[in-house]
Amino acid sequence: METTGRVSLGTIARAWGRIGITGFGGPPAHILLLRRLCVERRKWLSPEEFEDGVAATNLLPGPASTQLAILTAWRLRGVPGALVGGACFIAPGLALILALAVLFLAGDPPRWVLGAAAGAGAAVPAVAVQAATSLLPASFTRAGRGRAARARWGGYALAGALAAVLTGPWLVLVLIASGLAEIAVRARGRGPGESGGPGRERPRRPRAGLLPLAAGLPALGGLGAVAWVAFKVGALSYGGGFVIIPLMHDDAVDRYHWMTDGQFLNAVALGQVTPGPVVQTVAVVGYAAAGIAGGLLAAAVAFAPSFLFVILGGRHFDRLRADRRVQDFLTGAGPAVIGAIAGSALPLAAALGTGWQGVVLAFALLWLVAARRGVVLALLAAGVAGVIATAAGLPLP
């Protein structure tokens, strides 16, 4: 994968910054905007190159749409392009979400702000359910048509759901174990010598030796703890997007007590309604722990692996995609991710503290899951409902 020098860094900064400002709606919107820019309008990349980039970044842990933004800029101007494009894609949403965190997590915010936060937070469990259901068809098709393959798919999904509800920091281990189990099963079915891709090179598997440490590290203090939580989000979260929610909840609420359940719901809502990648949510967690410095540190640590994956490994992505064992890993880890996202809705819903929030959640489920409408509008409407509820004298959670 060779890069070109056709595009100036200033052009990349303006174009990727514009996407960072207008990219409401999460990864689907980011992919659409990047495709329109790079393939349809400017014709910097061919359709095949762009689709290969989408497929390659979905093989990596962490925020896939951010990695795609970095990768497309890298294809145009190499390492400088990747750094400029990625930073300009991330910065607008990061600035906005930190500004909102200051408002929503203030020590004594206005009552209408608390109402808006409680309303938007009430819709978050529905967003988790919608995120899981949107991923389900492709993952189930990928598993294959055999009864055994579909039974394994169901087992991995159930394991992920139970891990999200019960195990907290051990969720990452369950995702990795599901992927490795599928590699083992399919390798036996193919027989010796058939599991590798071109050249039958051994793939670089996840460094499992780090995972028990990541899951069970003794409590750190201050910025060290913020950095460790952000690292787990950025480097060890297969599936990207909403799978970070169960990963962060245990640390932010139960282990370090940086946030209440309600504040965590607010953080997730802010990550959904602001432009840019959903992983920006980790900046709100960092802000709750250590102020602006904590928010900036959390964002820097969470996004650093994405830059490293692309800059150091971009030229090897095609070979990675061709390796059957990598594909088998994703076939097993994918349903576990879906189960974890769906399972995260249960503790999030259990954190709701008032009856009117339950009504908001019910309407959000109808809007997002039954009607399959947009997330941003659902959260904004839920926030307005919260303002109205508090103005009417209903209790705050």
Give a verbal description of the structure.
The chain has 397 residues and is mostly helical. It has 2 domains: 9-88, no CATH class; 89-391, no CATH class. Helices cover 75% and strands 0% of the residues. It is built from 16 helices and no strands. The chain has helices spanning 9-22, 27-41, 47-57, 64-104, 111-143, 147-166, 171-190, 211-216, 222-235, 244-255, 261-273, 281-313, 317-322, 324-350, 355-370, 375-391. Helix 9 (222-235) crosses helix 12 (281-313) and helix 11 crosses helix 12 (281-313). The longest helix is centred in the N-terminal third of the chain and has 41 residues, at 64-104. The chain starts with 8 loop residues before the first helix and ends in a 6-residue tail after the last helix.
Using brief descriptors, characterize the structure shown:
2 domains, 397 residues
Q: Helix fraction?
A: over 70%
How many runs of DSSP E, i.e. beta strands?
0
- Count up the domains: 2
Q: Give Rg in angstroms.
A: 21 Å
- Oligomer state equals single chain
Number of helices: 16
**In angstroms, what separates the terminal alpha carbons?**
53 Å
Q: Secondary-structure element order, as H and E? A: HHHHHHHHHHHHHHHH
The computed structural class is mainly alpha
**Per DSSP, what share of the residues sits in E-state strands of 2 or more residues?**
under 5%
Shape, please? globular
Uncertain segments are: 1-5, 193-219
Mean pLDDT, nearest integer?
84
**Major sheet characteristics:** none
